[in-house]
What we know:
Layout: E1 2-4, H1 10-20, E2 24-29, E3 35-40, H2 43-54, E4 61-64, E5 79-81
Parallel strand pairs: 2-5
Antiparallel strand pairs: 1-4, 2-3
Amino acid sequence: MHGAxxxxxxxxxxxxxALELGLVGRASNLADGRVEVIAExxxxxxxxxxxxxRSDRAPGWVDTVVERxxxxxxxxxxxxxx
Length: 82
């Protein structure tokens, strides 16, 4: 995610939405100020998370969400924030 997403509860909010959708993964701050979200679960639920991240309900200000889809790896057990 690009935008003003650090220091506004964005990772916590993302984790809450992901858990509501039954997803596993993580939301991490990157050194350049972006937040990386890795989510694994049913595609329709991942798409719902993406929609939430792009919505005006997300805390802070998100101007870009970059999607990258891949096969699930199955090595994530919960949704964490770092």
